[in-house]
Queue: 2 jobs
Job 1
Amino acid sequence: MIDITNYDDDNIFAKILRQEIPSRKVFENKYVYAFEDINPQAPIHILIIPKKSFCSFQDFSKKADSKFICEFIKSIDLIAEKLELKEGYRLITNIGKHGGQEVPHFHFHLLSGRPIGKMVST
Ligand code: AMP
């Protein structure tokens, strides 16, 4: 079962940040790293992760300082601008078991390139 209470330094996104495993970079600045999802669910499926160790959105909200939170959110908009997502996009962040989180490093999914459809599967 996923543990989102203690940060696992060996999770796959931590390894991507340390460049121990490859990724297809889309955007990077001081606060975030964004790369293509290995198993895309839409024509555009980007993962946006903070360059600091947070297990989940919950952990991020509680522990990140206000400047970091602000810059992280603004970076998402910069990524959307860079990708010219004029028809819109969907952001998703999964938290814990019921949220369907698989990787215990906080991330947003950015999905676009077609209408993304129903918000929740039945
Ligand atoms: P979540 O279920 O919200 O934790 O999402 C984890 C996402 O990470 C999934 O969409 C996976 O396809 C993606 N993923 C797992 N390993 C990699 C990897 N090495 N490179 C890119 N995406 C990955």
Job 2
Amino acid sequence: MSLANKNILLGVTGGIAAYKSAELVRELVQAGAQVRVVMTEKAKAFVTPLTFQALSGAPVASDEFDAPQAEHGMDHITLARWADAVLIAPTSANTIAKLTHGGADDLLSTLCLVTRAPIALAPAMNQAMWSHPATRRNCETLKKRGILLFGPASGKQACGDVGEGRMFEAHQLLLSLDHLFHTGELDGLNVLITAGPTREPIDPVRYISNRSSGRMGYALAEAARDAGASVELVSGPVDLRAGEGIHCVPVNTAEEMLQAVRRHVDHQQIFISCAAVADYRPVARQPDKIKKLHADLSLELTRNPDIVAEVARQPRRPFVVGFAAETREPEKYALQKLERKQLDMIACNNVADPQCGFDSEENALEVYWPGGHHSLEQDRKPKIARGLIRLIAERYASTHKPGNVTVLKKVKDRNQNS
Ligand code: PMT
């Protein structure tokens, strides 16, 4: 399941099928997703917010001006940006009409205008309402706009009618949502990623390191796995667990990271060097803890091997993506690194900004490749990672033409549908 660690915003509108959404929340949470529920006023006539709060473990919102919501730092803009996907289940005919016309008279419809995440609707209504020309036309308009429809199913309805308009069952919605994250952009490819910091020991208790949390590299590993790749992650010491299906090789020092990369790089098509590898290490590691004997102490340092440059120098190299962490003149230094290290692509983050880069939840990247550039605007690292994986898939497909016509087609199809 790709739903682990995904942020799912579940909208619930007024309809008897709202009772099925309680089961859906339970299944989403079981699949490892974080769920936030937003209800319309009419939905509350069918199921209480308390039910969803208990199942999701998070406060339920329905009004832009909800005090409890604001207290959790989740105003409507934050909530819209938080979501990896928005699913409205059940979606009433009225909500379909409202979304078609861009209405924003409650929290749910407002969120749908703000979010850049994919939106999916699970319609549930009487069969006559579903087949009404107005609803049919509205659905066509929404589909053209890229909004997905999960269902409806047909069968016996709560009102006694028989026909199309029953909401999909919870497990069907779960599968459809899961499918949304399987892009197929890297189907069948092997991807090696480095993440986190390295630690260069000074003595048995001290080391040189940096503030890398590993979040960016781990998010890339999940995004590459969701895109269909088989992923190996060489990770410095971090407080994170690699996602399901990702093979993780833990290391401490730059030298260990280099050895692990050498062992695993041979069968890879893509190498992404996201680790913040220490550029220098102490010349000698002291066998005992250094005593506080003098006012000053000098440490002699020596350069660490440049892992990404070594991979890029190989005669049969994978597609090599580097990162550049810069505090000034980011474009100039990123382009220099792209050329000097002979990379296929470089993702530059301006780490002078405390909201981005090292040890933060968010990032923003300027991505360069020979003759091209793309900006990934500030967002949560999992979303930035998906954007970068998509760019990598596009570049990989266009530079490795013979066997990758299918990959390029998948990437293009995906972009048209999103
Ligand atoms: O881990 P997070 O808290 O989520 O933060 C993410 C990040 C800021 C660490 C990440 O986005 C990032 O920028 N990683 C690269 C950090 C870095 O070392 O940048 P650099 O400009 O010093 O290095 C350039 C490139 O060379 C990088 O791809 C780096 O992995 C590689 N390198 C550097 C030194 C070295 N000895 N070997 C290398 O392979």
